[in-house]
Amino acid sequence: MRRPFLIAVLVGFALWAVPASAGRNADVAVWQYGVESTSRTAQAGNFFTLVGTGFRTWAPAKICLTGQYPCQTVEVDSSGSFRQPEILYYPGTYLINVYQQKSRNGGNTDLAYSGQLTVVN
Description:
Layout: H1 2-17, E1 27-32, E2 35-37, E3 41-43, E4 48-53, E5 61-65, E6 72-74, E7 82-86, E8 92-103, E9 106-120
């Protein structure tokens, strides 16, 4: 009687400890002037929006752009998505890094997405 119960408890714990994003693919798109930029290009000095999909729904995302301080924290909705308005004033290539906690029970952050953004005049 004890052995099957112990096995059920261990299996349940193992399933609970799996990261919420297992099998998911996070992605970040760049939108400006109401249009998605498939080349991830934005115009300097004008607002654009980073739109994330495929993220863990239980934890906020931390968005870091190269050379921009501090990183921005944004809430992830129930579909695993977020929208974050940004503005960059100088042309160049920026790295977008998005971090989230590794598991449901906290711990260190995990790099959930990394990609480039090009800003032009």
